[in-house]
Amino acid sequence: MADLALRQGIDELNAAYADCIDDDRLEEWPDFFVENCRYLITSRESHMAGLRHGIIYAASRGMLADRVMAMRRANIFEPHRYRHIVGPARIDRVEDGVAEARTNFLAVRIMHDGDSQLFATGRYLDRIAVGAEPYRFVERLVILDSQKVDTLLVIPL
Amino acid sequence: MADLALRQGIDELNAAYADCIDDDRLEEWPDFFVENCRYLITSRESHMAGLRHGIIYAASRGMLADRVMAMRRANIFEPHRYRHIVGPARIDRVEDGVAEARTNFLAVRIMHDGDSQLFATGRYLDRIAVGAEPYRFVERLVILDSQKVDTLLVIPL
Amino acid sequence: MADLALRQGIDELNAAYADCIDDDRLEEWPDFFVENCRYLITSRESHMAGLRHGIIYAASRGMLADRVMAMRRANIFEPHRYRHIVGPARIDRVEDGVAEARTNFLAVRIMHDGDSQLFATGRYLDRIAVGAEPYRFVERLVILDSQKVDTLLVIPL
Questions:
Q1: Among the four residues A44, B13, C12, C151, which has the most C-beta atoms within 10 Å?
Q2: Structure ipTM over 0.95, yes or no
Q3: Chain C residues lying within 8 Å of B84, measured CB to CB
Q4: Residue B99 Cα to chain centre, angstroms
């Protein structure tokens, strides 16, 4: 039973997270993470090689907020949005109030003129604080299937 | 607990709805709506501008049925199908037996010769009657990410 | 309640199955099936015509294992991977410990150089042994939306 609620809570977290980004409410994005979090976008190859840094990296909620602010100020990139489609989460284990989960995702990028294309696929490897609500990410590793994405990456995934 | 059943019921409704369309059982499609429903396909821009009409619009179950009949009779378009992939639903609130939910979707269009392409992405903004089973849509707004879709749109999304 | 656990169990099975293939742990793939299983990849047209064989066919867990071994040995195809995105499962009925379910899926193919494209869409028509854990497939029919996929198909879907 706890299990049912847990899994549903994680699916909801994933839905809300995608919604926040796709809806361009990026100022709310850091709030999906605990204060001492780790957020990393990297490629499958780099992840398997054990590299701890990636295309986008943040080691605290403050760094996530900084990134959003910089993005808003710079504003030099061609306007675009994402649409995330995430699959059901898979929970690997729960220990000391932290759940380890992984979830497949796909992001479509929609340019300002309406052109849409498959932008990125991969999976989230997550550690999620589930001891209290709302659930928050202790760690979210975004493992991209392709290394071709990086130069185009501005908005978080 | 009620919450768990509710969220699962909405995920099931979304799965059944997609299944009905993708399976070309469009005559059953109006039955996913209450009698006095509202169904609207529109673009993100139009929706944000507060426009109440869109690419496809129906204000009752009867109008939905009419649309399907017209589509079957006309039959002038190049045969094609969709495959919907929907993410987990996000429930915003439940009041007076009506749940407000939103769900990301992606539709691939498969032409008669087998050519497949990403056709549309967006989200469903739903008001769902959940006081009795089966759940039915009081309102389903299909908010498309791109305005480029419209001329190609024949089958409902 | 049993219903909630059942549906969640099936979503989890689908997530684990996709994960196994996308993660290239194909040696574990046959373990998702019961000993006397049926696995079939076919096109919508062939399925509707009632043809019982398809692009890939196996009538036992041993045949699935053979297929993986052959694939590993031959190794003549251009290296690639999939990323599966599956929607919520739809359960049609449960009888004698076997659930009938169907689930939409989409698979993106990622080539070795990072090129990614929409590879296949379709739905799983499943019969799942749910009397004991872990749930296992008695039958998994992979019904492809397009007949154009087959010559490229090496890795199971």
A1: B13
A2: no
A3: 87, 104
A4: 16
